User: Fold these one by one.
Assistant:
Number 1:
Amino acid sequence: MADGVTLDRRGLDALLAASRALDAVAVDFGAMGEGGGPAPRHPSGGGTTADVLAAHEYGLGGNDETPIVRAVAHGKGEEIGEVAAKAAAKVLAGTATPDEAAKSVGEHAVGLLRARIESVGLIDTGATRDSLTWARGRK
């Protein structure tokens, strides 16, 4: 650099690397199988737990429309965003990994979904509620 000034980029490089790693993370949540795979079959025989959730979510097959995922995504989006921001700050500070950040956000969202299902009384066998999970995706 000019005039003998030396810039130590180690901290900046680490911050940029953490930012890039974090930017590649997406969190999916809903009724799905382990690791984001296909949802398990519902014990009623009426399809998968995702099918049952969708039937209630959108009022299909004679069910009343009872938003679960939409209610959480829209009604609790700011709260989920706050959890994500705190998790991202930990990644950028070097005290958490992107996987740990995803887990924090995913588990929080699943807790909100399960609470919503319980609050509207959509529990019969518990299979749909129990199939609510999260998976780390990639953007």
Number 2:
Amino acid sequence: MMCYTFTVDATSIAWSDVELRGVAWVEEGRDVVFRVRLPGTGPAPERERIVICRWAEGLVLNVTIPSGVGGPPLTWNATFARRDDDRWSVNFDFAHAGEIRLTCAEVDVQPAP
């Protein structure tokens, strides 16, 4: 049985108030995958996405959750910009909580499994 997924252009998503639900290194550490939940009123599973950054490098993961604050960090914004060398510059801005940034060859956004 064949499994089909659809890919969404990362630049077409509003990245404010997106919950970071997890970070994983896959493909023997080559790719970085972010599990996120988009804002909205629909059922939570329908708002779950994975952001796959293929051939990732230069990862800076600097997110601080203050003492006494619970829950996943929320984005202030995120940007996905194509560079002159045809790679992607990815930046998740968590306002006062920090940021995640990296460079990768491809960005793929899919519904979370």
Number 3:
Amino acid sequence: MSESVSSIDKNNFNSAVRYLCRADTIYVFGSGSNESLATYLCFRLNSFRKKTVLIPDTDNNIFEKLILLTPKDFLVVYAFYKPTPDIISLLDFVHRRQIPNLLITDTRVPPMVRNAHLVLYAKRGPFGVFLSTPSFPWRLQMPSSSGWPKNWGRRLWKPCASSMISELPTTTKRYLTWPG
């Protein structure tokens, strides 16, 4: 795990957090097995009151959502495992429209990374071992998990999260015990 975390460019990580905090809307795409990662990121960002849009993994629907993006938005693309023509086309589209974007991947295939604004490359272990599974991408979204430098995620997310973190448990508790 520490080797995978140390393979991530810290400057790109910091830049990605800044973009996520400042974006008007965050669009997230992940096809196939990456879709669950995209859904989870939307869930997490919603807890910070960030407006997120999950881009569906179906041909025309991808571009119906993409035409809504502006340079004030931010696109996050998960591309673990094999690059697909959809991902390459999607990154080309946002590159041409100058939309800031982040590619989270375990590959450095030039057709895929050349149009990415920021790349978080996560080195994975060999096939069949622990880090060859989706566990590392999940941990990438959870900076408090093992392997991350102490307080790295909290320090970066604090300006974005403000009081929302403390408000969520109170609101949840109130409505879970709601009498009606």
